Please model this.
Amino acid sequence: LSSDIDRLQDAVRAFAEARDWEQFHTPKNLAMALAAEAGELLEIFQWLTPEESRLEASESAFESARSEIADVLIYALRLTDVLQIDLVEAIEAKMQMNASRYPVQLAKGNAAKR
Amino acid sequence: LSSDIDRLQDAVRAFAEARDWEQFHTPKNLAMALAAEAGELLEIFQWLTPEESRLEASESAFESARSEIADVLIYALRLTDVLQIDLVEAIEAKMQMNASRYPVQLAKGNAAKR
Amino acid sequence: LSSDIDRLQDAVRAFAEARDWEQFHTPKNLAMALAAEAGELLEIFQWLTPEESRLEASESAFESARSEIADVLIYALRLTDVLQIDLVEAIEAKMQMNASRYPVQLAKGNAAKR
Amino acid sequence: LSSDIDRLQDAVRAFAEARDWEQFHTPKNLAMALAAEAGELLEIFQWLTPEESRLEASESAFESARSEIADVLIYALRLTDVLQIDLVEAIEAKMQMNASRYPVQLAKGNAAKR
Model:
């Protein structure tokens, strides 16, 4: 029984292979593509107030955000596949590191980087 | 039976709530944080050749890439949670759009944006 | 009589040449480095309110912002040098395009992208 | 006698003021806009080989790069104006720091971050 993530990663890989795009999909290029999509996501929010950024007043901005986040995730799925990184394990490992870096007592109400 | 993604999203939400970080986690701020992590990912690859970017020769660069990709994904999980976007549906919808935008015959061996 | 910009661009080029860094300074790599520095700039501001982002209350955040903006500009100077783009002309051409794209009457008080 | 940079900065400020855009131009928002433009710059280069990234074979990619770099610089001019950072001094200070961080003997032919 494969997970959602495995299934999506398989679909993204098949999409690239069908188009002979493995030649473009070096980790370097995929990192660039991911960051470029993150830039498009920023553009949606750049002039909005914190409250407006909830996108409750704009269906079209919401759809754009959904689409750009999907692009970021698609490249993240592809990049972790090419680098043979287990995405779930990577997230879990980072969450554990964050838990020790930001203990509740010290980090409560305070987002300062440690 | 919840999926990996639901489980991770719950963990990321609980982490923020335990630290009273909801106040910082507007969609605007989360988009910035995601893009900042994408920038850290770029930094790992910026001077590498396409071949070197496979990170087969550097355990420490590989670990850094794994960690930065995890950061991107953690913010993506949090952002989609705050915006109430179904991440799996968003990816599937975008994959379908990509399939019609990049038909195999036209896109074969050619990564030009359409 | 050379301008500030020419002088700075010469200094950035000399710095790279003295270190045999021309081999790393392809336009692709410089665009990545510029974007990575833009990501570090984002990180300074990501959790701040609009008002806090003026950095009037934090000398160290101000110094960090100054340093990251300088990094962005140094890579922009190097990238335009390598691509043989006249930076002043490029800015002036874009300002003219923006003036016709955002006529005062339509754009007044409204930052919507056109 | 004002320099190129002062003159461009004045023009960018006047452009914003004429459109009542000061309200949008918090440092936070300008940092986002700068990073979003850096993302558009990345997109031009993401699938290109190092050699292709010189853009000698594509007039239209060259024009796009020129336009996106101009956008990055326009936001950098505006951001330094709003934060009252002297851009030339900031670059000179960073170049001096880089000179001591990357001494020629250690950094020769080696772009590793220090």
